Amino acid sequence: MPRPITTGLDGSTESRAAAEWAAREATLRRLPLHLVHAWAMEAPTARTAMEPEVRRHWALRILREAEADLSARHPDLSISAEQVHEPPVAALLERGERAEALVLGSRGHGAVTGFLLGSVGLRVLSRAACPVVLVRKESLREPDRAGDEVVVGVQATGEPAGALLDFAFTAAAARRLPLRAVRAWRLPPLFAHSPEALRQMDEDGGIEAHERRALAETLRPLREKFPDVPVVEHVELGSATEVLLTAATRARLLAVGRRTEHPALATRLGHVAYAVLHHAHCPIAVVPHD
């Protein structure tokens, strides 16, 4: 059975926008859609003072209304819904292990909100086993434009970039859009490279030529796997964040990577991923890789 696109719902406009984006993505990729509402018992406050059964009723209503609405707009889409009584982080992380992607709502340029609030969103983004896509409700209203692309930031090269690039190529193929692979480079400080590395760069024709070659070699297996996806290899001198955000001005989707090899940093994102989450205008996918 194919793994679903999974999205969290809490009834907010941000989470409904995320659910609509997830439904479109599932339709494009011919995957099922799974809706989740998770909640845990809290100490009563002026804002949350209601009986558990009342809260459960309203949560179930949120799911049913969303499922009915999405089914009406996407009649060919297989949709399931689930209400779970557990903390949202644990619920989404567990379901992310069985999902192609998790889709969450985001309130524009600022903290991650919608289904997840504050540090909860950061913990899911930085620990999920699958790609996590952040969607702003404004991005759903933007019409398709000529020249739109899927953009992917390629900081790692070689095998570590495989999962990120596979996600980005799959997204571009589903949308029938070109892929722009972006790699930024900077002049190294003195003694930053070994003599062997400097020799290799010199043989490649300089640092920029070396970076272009590294990107081309990394992209080659994915070009062969997705021969119908046009690819733009974008290599530019400058800050990785600035280069990527500038290149993504016409992005329909922006994908960035997140390394998973440092368990001590399990609640942190890389600085590039963190910056684009706050400043990019399109949906953003954060993809874990080694």
TrEMBL record:
Gene3D superfamilies: HUPs. Pfam families: Usp (PF00582). Residues 1-136, 150-288 form the UspA domain. Signal peptide: none annotated. Belongs to the universal stress protein A family. This is Universal stress protein. It comes from Streptomyces pathocidini.
